[in-house]
Amino acid sequence: MKTLIKNGLVVNATGTGMADVLIDGETIAAVVAPGSTLLGFNLESNVDVVIDVTGRYVIPGGVDAHTHMEMPFGGTNASDTFETGTRAAAWGGTTSIVDFVVQYPGENPLERYNAWQAKAAGNCAIDYGFHQILSDVQDSSLTAMDELIEEGVSSFKLFMAYKGVFLSDDGQILKAMQKGASNGALMMMHAENGSVIDVLVSQAIAAGNTSPYHHGLTRPWQAEEEATHRAIMLANLTGAPLYVVHVSAKQAVDQIAMARDNGQNVFGETCPQYLYLSLEEQLGASSDEWGTFEGAKWVCSTPLRSRAEGHQHHMWQALRTNDIQMVSTDHCPFCMKGQKDMGLADFSKIPNGIGSVEHRMDLMYQGVVDGHITLPRWVELTSTTPARMFGMYGKKGVIQPGADGDVVVYDPKGHTSIGVQKTHHMNMDYSAWEGYEIDGHVDTVISRGKVVVDNNQYVGTKGDGKYFKRGLSQYLI
Ligand SMILES: [Zn+2]
């Protein structure tokens, strides 16, 4: 099967140019000047399918490096399975995800990795890889880190919050980082001071402050800044590279920027919710159905931050200046009925998470329209850097010969009304993005040479997606 995508503006992280893209089988075979022949070989009359994309952008498929499909959390499971979540991702122009294998205290990381492989196998619409979460850092976990790298799991996530569930103490973090410094693994950190948060939460509940808004108030920016700094110092001490997930506080951004200016391998990720949504909007949220519990729709950790304090503005700026390097979703959806409502009387019982895997490419494209970032930077933040950061670049994250045929045709004159209830494809009974209007549209999504979304139809098949065995981060020497 040969496909020619002609007359498009190809957008890579390095810039834009008019070009025709030839996909042969699962791989991009050539990127050539529009209408050109290859040594007299007429491309158009020698391919099976020609897609004329005049006036539209041709971009590498999105890489969402932070998702939690069917993750067990707080007595329930994230509502998207690998099947529904990856299909929704495809709808939104994302052609690869990196999901998290969960290891709770006492469990064997390798067994958990095998369990996650079994959950995903044969179910995914797009390609997928895995990071490994380590909670308690046992000696066997350190050995497992070497073995998992051989399996293509080259990044390990630790938590400084969620005591008794995920939290690693500083000594455990130190040991894991020492291992990362020696075997080349990228160490990922959920940076919030869990002990401080646990006290603030119990004080709020005791005082009768039980509504969802208090989730944000009890996870203040100081707890994020402090933990981010502590993680940076532990990484500095051990020499491990550090990747801070879902950064939301401007003070944490500044810690990361300072460490980078000092020459340390520290990277930061943010998510669309920290660019667009705020604590004030969560406070103001109310509906006939839910009352002020409406705010539970936006309970996630790290929490939404105050717009009056300027976190969102600072974050857009950090994306432009590269103080923050990439945007993932932290896709971790829960329904309001039967899941979020476990916290009706106590915000600390609300499962933490927002579903966005379908909307990331659109929401970030709106950042181009609004003048925050350039077109190439859009591709860099959502595809190229995630691919490089997690050892997938060359195959993913770029339109070039030899890359996987993961291509999205994006229409800058199109329009997308996102998040209006029941129009999205994520397995959720609400949308955190209801009412958002985007000045662009995902027209066609090609995953390893196969069209999976076209003209507002899903035309792929369950199991199209394959496991991607990642290498070490391509940002590290
Ligand atoms: Zn997460």
Automatic annotation (TrEMBL):
CDD domains: D-HYD (cd01314). It holds the Pfam family Amidohydro_1. Carbamylation allows a single lysine to coordinate two divalent metal cations. SUPFAM superfamilies: Composite domain of metallo-dependent hydrolases (SSF51338), Metallo-dependent hydrolases (SSF51556). It comes from the Bacteria. Its cofactor is Zn(2+). The modification N6-carboxylysine is found at residue 157. Keywords: Hydrolase, Metal-binding. One of its GO terms (cellular component) is cytosol. Residues 57-452 form the Amidohydrolase-related domain. GO terms for molecular function: hydrolase activity, acting on carbon-nitrogen (but not peptide) bonds, in cyclic amides; metal ion binding. PANTHER family: COLLAPSIN RESPONSE MEDIATOR PROTEIN (PTHR11647:SF1), HYDRANTOINASE/DIHYDROPYRIMIDINASE FAMILY MEMBER (PTHR11647). Belongs to the metallo-dependent hydrolases superfamily. Hydantoinase/dihydropyrimidinase family. This is Dihydropyrimidinase.
